[in-house]
Each structure stands twice: as C-alpha cells, then as structure tokens.
Design brief:
about 300 residues, alpha/beta, Malonyl-Coenzyme A Acyl Carrier Protein, domain 2, Alpha-Beta Plaits, 2 domains, 4-stranded parallel sheet, 4-stranded antiparallel sheet, 8 strands, about 50% helix, about 15% strand, globular
C-alpha cells in the first residue's frame, strides 16, 4: 500500500490567542526547550507572555509574529513526537517561517531571530501610516469580482493582500480606505466585510519601508535547499532552492498571499491529508472552500494531535 502523504499547514497572524500552546508546553520537554530558546532570543519569558498577554497585546506585530511562530513550531514538534511527520509543508503569511524551519531551510534559532526583527521593523513601519491601517476579509465575492471592483473604484492606499479562497479575498489599506471599501463592497453583493485582528496593512506596498529595513538582516542568514516540498505564498508554487527561499522571504512582506494557487499546487502534488499545525482552524476553513476530497484537520493542541493519533 502507498504511504499516506501528509502536509503541515502553518497559520499566520490573526490566529493568536491568550494561552496558545501552553498545553503543548505542559506535555513536551522538547516544546519547553523551544520556549526557552525563544525566551532567550526575545529577551522575555515567553510562557509568561502567552499566559498574561491580552488580545490587544498579542495583536501587536512585534509580539504576534513571535508568539504565533513559537506556537506553530511547538505544534510541529509535538506532532513529530507522536510519530506524525510531514511529507511537505506550507505556511500562510507569517506561517511560512515555521514551514522554512520544518523543511530544513533555516534553523529554529535563525527563524526566531528573523521573526523578531521582522516584527519589530513592521511595527515601526506602522508609525509612518497616518490614521492607522489594517486588513479586512471580503466574503462572498469571487476573486475576479473583487479585483474588478477595486480597479473601478481606484481607492488610494487599498490593495488585494490575500487570495484566501474562491469565496474570500482579503484587502489591506489605511483605515479610511478600508472604511470606504466596506460600504462599496456591501453595496455590490459581498455577504460580509470582516475586519481582521491584525495591526497593519500586511502584504501590501504600504509595508515597503519594513522590507528595506529587513533586507540587511536577511542577507546575513544562511538558507539551505528544502529537503521537503515547500510552497511559496508569493508564487503559489514549490520553492526549490535556498536562494529562492531567501529572495521570496524579502518579497513576502509586500506581496499578496496566493493561497488559492498554493492549495492547487499542493493538491496536484498528490497529498492525501493536511494538518493545520498551529493555533486555530482558519486554514481548515479555507481548505474546505476548495471543495477538495483531501481533508484538513486541526493540529494545534494536544487534544487535536491525540485525536489524529486515535488516542481520544
């Protein structure tokens, strides 16, 4: 019989919540070691932060990027401890950093250092945006319709940021641009316009200053060729070399997340099952929108992972 082909999908910002990954910390020495490494690099007790931080604190870019990455890697570590190993990896937005670690492109230590800096420069770049900025999901309109409407309206400082599914597109922009778009989208048939729990206009040209600051830090980190199939948000296709992974990591900050194309590539490559390896169930929901026969199961908590192993 052919071995089941598994892919780990790592979620991104907006999935964070107080107390995430603490059950994994309780259950695994390896996860506790990850927390210790993260605490050393971030210069803060990460367990205490996850226990105490409220939603607004966790929403900060410089905190959410680090804590979500730690939760993603903790889930992946516990999955492997339970004998569930991936045959491929992908990450949504920030989640791509956990995918880089799991596919052997960068070390966990380098990942934490990169994500710490990335979060800091992105948080700093928000100070340059007058009146605030954010992201919102447009639900119920096909991608081509969203793109067509945006071209017609020509709203300054509003951009397509995430191609999430055939039923959901995310836009990034200033607060005023998003407010204008909300009214127009609802008037043109959108079922919902959902403001996301993120602090900035990610995956848009509004983050260009962060890219410029991040480039010099990225340059000094070694990127290996992936030893597992690894998929890119920027292209929607496989990343085949460390050099490409590094180049795309820089483009990643301002480029749209092409998750629809990425899911198509994953399914075409013959994966049998997907696991949302990190907090929440956002990616499982987007996966269902693909109407694929390939199931996607939550794998972000001890209970989730024990259920996968048939132990619950």
């Amino acid at each position: 019989m052919r071995k089941t082909k598994r892919i780990f999908l790592f979620p991104g910002q907006g999935t964070q919540y107080t107390g995430m990954a603490l059950d994994l910390w309780d259950a695994s020495d390896g996860v506790r070691n990850l927390f210790a490494l993260a605490s050393e690099i971030y210069d803060m007790d990460m367990k205490a932060l996850v226990v105490k931080a409220d939603a607004e604190t966790l929403k900060r870019v410089d905190i959410s990027q680090f804590t979500v990455t730690l939760a993603n890697l903790s889930a992946a570590y516990f999955m492997k401890e339970q004998g569930i190993v991936p045959d491929g990896v992908a990450g949504f937005s920030l989640g791509e950093y956990a995918a880089l670690v799991t596919s052997g492109v960068i070390s966990a230590e380098d990942c934490f250092r990169l994500v710490r800096t990335r979060g800091m420069v992105m948080q700093e770049s928000l100070n340059d945006i007058e009146g605030g900025a954010g992201m919102a999901a447009v639900i119920g309109l096909a991608p081509y319709m969203v793109i067509t409407l945006l071209a017609e309206w020509d709203i300054d400082e509003l951009f397509v940021a995430n191609f999430n599914s055939n039923r959901q597109i995310v836009v990034s922009g200033t607060t005023s641009a998003l407010a204008s778009a909300e009214t127009l989208f609802m008037e043109n048939g959108a079922k919902r316009f959902l403001w996301l729990s993120v602090a900035g206009p990610f995956h848009s040209p509004l983050m260009q200053s962060a890219t410029e600051q991040f480039a010099s830090v990225l340059e000094n980190v070694s990127f290996n060729d992936p030893y597992l199939p690894l998929y890119s948000n920027v292209t929607g296709n496989r990343i085949t070399s460390g050099a490409d992974a590094k180049r795309l990591a820089l483009l990643h900050i301002t480029s749209p997340v092409r998750w629809i194309d990425e899911e198509v590539s994953i399914i075409a490559d013959g994966f049998d099952v997907a696991f949302e390896t990190g907090p929440g169930r956002t990616l499982a929901g987007l996966w269902r929108d693909m109407d694929s026969a390939v199931p996607c199961s939550a794998a972000g908590t001890v209970r989730d992972i024990l259920i996968i192993n048939g132990e619950y």
